[in-house]
Fold:
Amino acid sequence: MTATTITPPLPGHRLARRLSDWVDPKNVIIGVSLIIGCGLFGWRGVGWAAVAIVFAAVLPMTYILYVAGDGTWANRHLTERQQRITVLPAISASVAVGLTIQAATDAPRPMIAMTAAMWATITAIWPVTVLARYKISVHTAVTGGSIAMLSQSLAPVWLLGFVLVAALGWARVTVREHTLSQVITGAALGTAVAGAVYALWP
Structure:
């Protein structure tokens, strides 16, 4: 009978798990949508932010839990690469619908650019996951892209948020969901793609 080897948790595992759960892509998307919407347009921006939140956070999370997953909250991080291959196109399609609604209802340019940047980031992650067979970190990609957008739309001081991106990368490595290279690649991709799309959107 072969004994099962149990890998002991890394130092700081409990804090890393909490940070990983609190600063997950869904929560980051909700936060950045409300901050940009309210920061630029006051209470009027809540409605535009709500469109992005529904199609980029709420519906994707519902799909992950009850269609692609097992209905449990623990499944939401999509720890298996194969799950991501299936789920990311569905999330991309959902965000595209939200983007279309914003464009059709004459949402302000910053709100459309924000949703377009979210769509571009998720869409860019998929070929890396499939073709490169690389489980890039969605956590650091979404958070890095959000900081890039906040620094452009509101104030450069938001660049300090990359401290949070670094902490989140540490957390994802500590809970053994990603390697160091995967969290760095995620942060770089998200920052570059979302930052460029937000800046260049007409």
The helical segments are 13-22, 25-41, 44-66, 81-104, 109-131, 138-153, 162-174, 180-200. The chain has a mean pLDDT of 90. The chain is about 75% helix and 0% strand. Residues 31 and 53 are 9 Å apart (CA to CA).
